[in-house]
Amino acid sequence: MSTPRIEINIKKIAHNTKTLIRLYGSKGIDVIGVTKVVCGNPHVAAAMVQNGIRILADSRIVNLRKMRNAGLRAEFLLLRTPLLSQAKSVAKYADISLNSELSVIKALSKIAETNGKKHKIILMIEMGDLREGIMPSDLDDIVEQVMTLKGIELVGVGTNLACFGGIKPDEEKMVYLSTITRNIEEKFNIKLKCVSGGNSANYNWFMSTKNVGRINNLRLGESIHLGCETLYRKPIPELYTDAFTLVAEVIEAKIKPSLPFGEIAQDAFGNLPKFKDQGKINRAILGIGLQDIQVSGLTPRADVKILGASSDHIIIDASNVEVKTGDELKFDLNYSALLSAMTSPYVLKKIKVSLWMLKNIAKALNKNTANIKNYFQQSLLKKTSLN
Ligand SMILES: *Cc1c(COP(=O)(O)O)cnc(C)c1O
Questions:
Q1: How far apart, in whole angstroms, are the C-alpha atoms of residue 44 and residue 265?
Q2: Ligand 1 atom with the shortest distance to the CA of 59
Q3: Which of 111, 243, 248, 383 gives 91 a disulfide partner, CB atoms 3.0 to 4.6 angstroms apart?
Q4: Residue 368 pLDDT greater than 80, yes or no
Q5: Which ligand 1 atom sits nearest the alpha carbon of residue 124?
Q6: This prediction's pTM
Q7: Using CA atoms, how far apart are residues 78 and 99, in angstroms rounded to an integer?
Q8: Would you say 228 and 204 are in contact if contact means Cβ atoms under 8 Å apart?
Q9: How far apart are CA 255 and CA 306, in angstroms?
């Protein structure tokens, strides 16, 4: 089988989904399944839906379209606050979107009205992380204007932390979000169905809080896919952290010096490299590089060390294991490595799935099992997962 490839164990993602839904459900919190790190891969999304996810969320319209067109029976939510220029396709492919700009919400309303339906929105509130969100002091004014828009249904409020500023979604922030929710409900005499407290970084808060307050929703990506929380990247008990495996192939294996010889100038990326002399070592080159993957996010499963990388090569120290040309080496991926591998058209996506799972996925995708086999075969041959 060709390399480099990323092997996706759907059964493990299904297990993680089910376990997280049960965990968060124990305190009344609903889970939205986030698919952006797998570029809206319909098989992964189907496993999520089959295990209890009712809303699939992605940051890009192309991914929402891909999942919708695959026939997934779920609601679709756009995570990234919409581009004004894309308002039309947002209204078309997303049932719900997260919003922080009145001009965009007005545009969405207009389009929804023309289509004769309502577009649901969740207003994002700035709570310190300084990515998207309305400043709390401006909220009342915006809600008041949103309430007058005929094409919009305000279904809730939300916040996003631990993304840009690295700010923790702690008890204080969550209590504040609950308070904001109650204030809006009282002032405008409405009921907000959804209070979305954050993402995979909310795990520690959830485990330690005695009262989740009004928070009844989280949007989870990384903890479903990689089985960890995201404040300290600790594994969550009972979850798989190895649903994804990167496989690369050895294209050269030789005993060579550990120190480059000759006069040192810039490397391929303009750095002045420094090396330690360890005498001659077993070195190997892998047929994968920065054009395929964020190399710094890889952890070898074998006892080898990554020495460096260029666009198309990773160089490893293979002193402790025997490798020869043609051998395959496996790696764990962190979030950014996974993101880059899934996005790269050069990395084959190989989906490991049991017949039982295949049948379930067929159900979620509304296809019969004979068709789904064919569908899998095709997506296996298709190297790109874009569009
Ligand atoms: C990506 C994203 C999420 C999911 O974050 P994870 O850390 O993967 O759980 C949730 N909300 C928004 C707005 C996002 O952009």
A1: 45
A2: 15
A3: 111
A4: no
A5: 13
A6: 0.94
A7: 9
A8: no
A9: 16
Q: How confident is the model at residue 354 (pLDDT cuts 50, 70, 90)?
A: confident
- Residue among 37, 79, 164, 338 whose CB has most ligand 1 atoms within 8 A, to mutate: 79
CA distance 296 to 283: 18
Phi, then psi, of 282 in degrees rounded to 5: -75, 115
Residue 180: other Cβ atoms inside 10 A: 21
List active site positions.
36
Q: Is the CB of 60 under 6 A from ligand 1?
A: no
Q: Is the CB–ligand 1 distance for residue 33 below 6 Å?
A: no
pLDDT at residue 384, rounded to an integer: 39
Residue-averaged pLDDT of the chain:
94
Amino acid at 172: E
What is the per-residue pLDDT for 380? Answer: 52
Q: Residue 386: pLDDT above 60?
A: no
Angle at 91 between CA 140 and CA 198, to 5 degrees: 55
In DSSP terms, 119 is beta-bridged to: 152
120 lines ligand 1 (CB under 6 A): no
pLDDT in tens, 314-345: 999 999 999 999 999 999 999 999 999 999 99
pLDDT of amino acid 383: 42
8 A C-beta contact, residue 249 and residue 326: yes
Beta strands in the chain (DSSP E): 5-9, 30-34, 55-58, 75-78, 96-99, 119-124, 152-158, 194-196, 217-220, 244-257, 280-286, 298-300, 305-309, 314-317, 328-333, 348-352
> For residue 223, which atom of ligand 1 is closest to its CA?
9
